Predict the structure of Phosphoribosylglycinamide formyltransferase.
Amino acid sequence: MKRIVILLSGRGSNMQAIVEACAAEGWPAKVVAVVSNKAEAAGLAWAAQRGIATAVVDHRGQPDRETYDAELARVIDGFAPDLLVLAGFMRILSASFVRHYEGRLLNVHPSLLPAFPGLHTHRRAIEQGCKLAGATVHFVTAELDHGPIVAQAAVPVLPGDDEASLSARVLEREHVIYPLAVRWFVEDRLVLAEGRVSHRDGVPQHLF
């Protein structure tokens, strides 16, 4: 039984999608904890109501990123995770933190990486005249919003789209591909080698 810890900073809609899919589909895994850098994060209350352990590691007052990340890792490791999932965790993680969880740290980013890393992805896609936008699940590396791609989903950029409408459509796809990618991991169906991800069953994993 794989142990999953989820990190978030807000409402955690992707966290909710993962928790619900895990229960409904009977994964060989359990979300054992939800950790946030903000005590007021709405996702903590949602998790606690479902009997999931929660913890807060507040970044405010910490002298530097390395010190914060060391404390964050200490708390996370107390739950002995096999997989660490970023679900709207609004912190840039240090290289030492990423190395500590190398090969077992997933993130979802609201663009078709490597396009539009960083913030304001939907605005930038619209401004650049993109015909497609989307989301990417990837293993985390020390380089921001890079790393071996596990799955991607594309949505059309429609005439009249603004950031809010495009974001909502992309988020719907995130709620599909993120739980799917996590399920593949806990079922040992992913192979990570030489900076690329393949699937033991040969299932197409790149576009949905």
Q: What stands out?
A: Residues 2 and 29 are 4 Å apart (CA to CA).
